[in-house]
Amino acid sequence: MSTENVRQFTVALDDDGIRLDRWFKRHLPDTSFNIVSRWARTGQLRVDGARATPGDRIQAGQVIRVPPADAAQAAAVAAKPKKARPQLSPEQMEFAESMVIHRDAQAMVINKPPGLATQGGTKTHDHVDQLLDGLYYELDVRPKLVHRLDKDTSGALVLARTARAAAYFSKSFSGRTARKTYWAVVVGVPSIEDGFIELPIGKQPGTGGEKMQVDEKEGQPARTRYRVIDRAGNRAAWVELQPHTGRTHQLRVHMAAIGHPIVGDGKYGMAEAFLSGSISRKMHLHARRIRIDHPDGGKLDVKADLPTHFAETLVQLGFNLEDGDNLPSDEKAPPTKEQEKAWAKAHAKTVRKERRGERQGRRDTTVKKAKPVKKDDKKADKKVDKKPARKPVKK
Questions:
Q1: For the whole model, what pTM was predicted?
Q2: Is 150 considered catalytic here?
């Protein structure tokens, strides 16, 4: 192959540690994965002179050797119309900027309001991801989502401002090293004021994965730490929640499972999730604080103010806002990924034992029907009984 049009690219700091196929998706998006794989198989794709595969991790400063695009590919790229991203209105730009509560060179934290989805989907046109076009500021890079909040959950949401920060934060969230603290108002008061909820969670059949449930047999291990901040008699409690695992709707499912659904969560608490009187029917679940290691060193530690309906409920129930931040320091770190895998393994083992016990129990309780004895068989038995016993053979 002629080397006249071979292209060379130096890996930037923001791309340090990512997979090679991911680098192509970022910088040469019109080059399909099949083409990259073909180049790798034929030895045309190289990193620092050595043959490379799409799954190889690249490092800052390395040189990627990319073959020239063939004429057919170039013509297809030129003919393919690029989909333009819809422009935000001045009102949307202003709204996006109003959500920002922290910004530095690598990260941004926004205070997501309740009712706004994190990402788009079927019949969901207004969402955080759409508004990120209004948060470039001094950089040319669009911020990236690195975790999510439910649509009706408000609070702190971390955004990465560079590709390096996105990879760093994603690793922190997947490795469970990020510390997330939620506030919630729940119906009733838990009998144990400081404890853990350890109930496996799985998808509820027939809901298309839109609703979860406690599933002792098929669910994934889930663990939640909770502490009661204050109580309004036996009517309601203000609690601090810390998810030690990251299951879908985990906090909502767990609180409903112990008989104290989050106020406003009709999906899991049904009619019991709503307080009488003037208490808002909106969800009372708020991501109050996020603590996570920063890509440049140190910690990112940000608190998000409560939405209006939540703050008003605290006042109506006689709670003092300062009490929520004055709880004793909590040094109980979330479990590591290895600990979570160990839980899952132990849980699966327990389920297998229970199933074996159930099968054994069914076998033991099954009564076999006795076969009726025929007359001929009775006569044969009598004849056998009349025969004299054989004498032992003398040696």
A1: 0.71
A2: yes
